[in-house]
């Protein structure tokens, strides 16, 4: 006789009742997902509101200034200049906000995590500096260590570490963001102003955001000074009178001269990083010499890598369905793009485990050298 649902043990009952969820609903990272997992923000995304305000407020003041000057101008030349300034600032501000949104609301390059560690291979040895707890055999847990692996990148030996939170080896150039609680590919830094990690998939937009902000600051600064200067000419060269009559321009000069140090300095620093093919994290941590950076190419090629290569698709499909059971039983994603698995390990894993790929995607854009690590 077929048992009634209420006769089932509580665990089975729970599984029967469990509704399938999408990956973003079960995601263990600290991200905020909107629009059904299509938009991915960091946990501090609220700071976006402040950043947006800091861009829009001075722009509104500047536009108001230009509009009133347009009406007060007594020559068509001045009118053209004020109208052009107005249009340029509006277009640049819109671009700035679009780049900000593209940086904040997209997957920065999150590396899908495993809910249980891949089976131990012969690389699991005592003595490294990455601890993990071994609960096998039901005995007292003891500290285990996963030794970093050496992989070859462009002829250089690079160490990849095991992430104890994501339970997998980090692809080269990845790091675990403690704020978002994810491993991020080509991790640059976590930016509190955009409330998101900066990584492989949003670095281009981040750079365009800071570069556009710098342009905006310099443009507003120059035009605000021109307004003060022309007011000085009208008031017999008195700077005091000019500043009194151009209070808004004066405020814009102060504001833009403070902000330009921040965004301009950041833009110059990132121009240096791009030209030498480093991330901020690598720059602070490894202090690469000219010769020991495995990723460095010619300057043009380094720039092309950031601005003219196709951005790879998200490694995690946050809208894919995951079964409740799969998450509880634990799964791992050993073969997704940029995983670090030697050929022998892969054969062993194939034999020993049923692979449950949840949300993981192979990276079609990984280079042949990258592919070597998981073939
Ligand atoms: Zn991690
Ligand atoms: Zn982060």
UniProtKB/TrEMBL annotation:
Transmembrane residue ranges: 45-64, 84-102, 205-226, 247-273
EC number: 2.3.1.225
Record's keyword terms, sorted: Acyltransferase, Membrane, Transferase, Transmembrane, Transmembrane helix
Membrane topology: Multi-pass membrane protein
Palmitoyltransferase DHHC domain location: 161-285
GO CC terms: endoplasmic reticulum; Golgi apparatus; membrane
Localization (cell): Membrane
Top-level taxon: Eukaryota
GO MF annotation, one: protein-cysteine S-palmitoyltransferase activity
Keyword Transferase in annotation: yes
Claim: Transmembrane helix is one of the keywords in the record: yes
InterPro entries found in the cross-reference section: Palmitoyltrfase_DHHC (IPR001594), PFA4/ZDH16/20/ERF2-like (IPR039859)
GO biological process assignments: protein targeting to membrane
Reaction(s) catalysed by this chain's protein: L-cysteinyl-[protein] + hexadecanoyl-CoA = S-hexadecanoyl-L-cysteinyl-[protein] + CoA
Record's comment describing the protein's domains: The DHHC domain is required for palmitoyltransferase activity.
Family under the similarity heading: Belongs to the DHHC palmitoyltransferase family.
Name used for this protein in its record: S-acyltransferase
Protein species of origin: Panicum virgatum (Blackwell switchgrass)
Phylogenetic placement of the source organism: Eukaryota, Viridiplantae, Streptophyta, Embryophyta, Tracheophyta
């Amino acid at each position: 006789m077929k048992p009634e649902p209420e006769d089932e043990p509580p665990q089975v009952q729970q599984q029967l009742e469990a509704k399938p969820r999408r990956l973003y609903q079960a995601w263990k990272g600290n991200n905020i997902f909107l629009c059904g997992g299509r938009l991915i923000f960091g946990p501090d995304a609220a700071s976006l509101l402040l950043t947006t305000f800091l861009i829009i407020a001075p722009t509104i003041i500047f536009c108001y200034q230009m509009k009133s000057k347009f009406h007060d101008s007594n020559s068509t030349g001045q009118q053209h200049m004020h109208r052009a300034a107005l249009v340029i600032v509006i277009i640049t501000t819109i671009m700035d906000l679009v780049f900000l949104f593209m940086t904040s609301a997209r997957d920065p390059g999150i590396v899908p995590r495993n809910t249980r560690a891949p089976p131990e291979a012969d690389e699991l040895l005592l003595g490294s500096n990455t601890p993990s707890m071994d609960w096998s055999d039901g005995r007292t847990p003891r500290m285990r260590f996963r030794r970093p692996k050496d992989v070859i990148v462009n002829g250089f030996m690079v160490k990849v570490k095991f992430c104890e939170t994501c339970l997998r080896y980090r692809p080269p150039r990845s790091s675990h963001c403690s704020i978002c609680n994810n491993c991020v590919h080509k991790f640059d830094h976590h930016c509190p102003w955009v409330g998101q990690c900066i990584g492989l998939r949003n670095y281009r937009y981040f750079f365009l955001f800071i570069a556009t902000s710098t342009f905006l600051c310099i443009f507003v600064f120059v035009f605000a000074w021109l307004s003060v200067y022309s007011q000085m000419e009208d008031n017999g060269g008195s700077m005091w009178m000019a500043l009194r009559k151009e209070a808004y321009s004066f405020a814009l000069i102060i504001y833009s001269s403070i902000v330009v140090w921040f965004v301009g300095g950041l833009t110059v620093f990132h121009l240096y990083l791009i030209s030498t093919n480093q991330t901020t994290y690598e720059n602070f941590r490894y202090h690469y010499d000219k010769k020991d950076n495995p990723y460095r190419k010619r300057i043009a090629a380094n720039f092309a890598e950031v601005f003219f290569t196709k951005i790879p698709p998200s490694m995690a499909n946050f809208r894919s369905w995951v079964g409740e059971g799969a998450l509880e039983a634990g799964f791992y994603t050993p073969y997704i793009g940029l995983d670090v698995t030697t050929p022998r390990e892969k054969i062993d894993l194939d034999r020993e485990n049923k692979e449950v790929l949840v949300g993981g995607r192979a990276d079609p854009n990984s280079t042949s050298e990258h592919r070597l690590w998981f073939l």
